[in-house]
Prior knowledge:
This protein is α/β, with parallel strands linked by helices. The protein has helices spanning 15-26, 33-40, 46-56, 63-74, 92-105, 118-126, 167-180, 182-190, 203-215; strands at residues 3-8, 30-32, 82-86, 108-115, 128-130, 137-139, 194-198. The strands form two sheets. It has a five-stranded parallel β-sheet, with helices on both faces. Strands 5-6 form a two-stranded antiparallel sheet. It is globular.
Amino acid sequence: MAKIIVLIGAPGAGKGTQARLLQERLGIPQISTGDIFREMRALDTPLAKEVQAIMAAGKLISDDITYKIVQDRTSREDCRNGYILDGYPRTAVQAAQLEELAKEQGFDIQAIEVDVPRDELMKRLTGRRSCSVCGEIYNIYSKPPKSDNVCDFHPETQLTHRADDNEESAATRLTTYDEETKPLLDYYQRSGRLSKVDGTGESEQIYAQLAKLVTG
């Protein structure tokens, strides 16, 4: 089962949740580029300092530097039997760079799309609410709190709604995904390495589909 699993899905598709479940239950590390960038803000390595300088200047981190970061993280001992990539690759250039990394590491690549219809994604993104005390996530459409806009576990706490969880921001994020990331689906489809799971069911149902593909 030693391979690189590339999870692909639009914002709100739930791929991060599924990556964490695969990590917990199958012992394959989840490598999230978003998490790595956040961690690098506090590190004192040459690569981290380079990333910090780019962020401080308000610039985008290049494909080459992102590749270095992924290469560095996946060279660690916990990745020797494969790993899950969440949020990488995002572009055709990054996909080509990952091919080279896979060859170096001796792994095959398996791409899996977590597929969710656009109207459902909009509901997930715009309906999201959270508790500032415990971090519990709710959704006014699919997982509302027991009492209106207060946490089930902290009823004295009003739920918060992120400023970017509105229709305009959500639509922009999904359009960006369509333009930049969806071509990856074609890329992996052409080489016969793309599978798809239905991301609209319960979390355990989605996980069952994923686990069957990963371990099959």
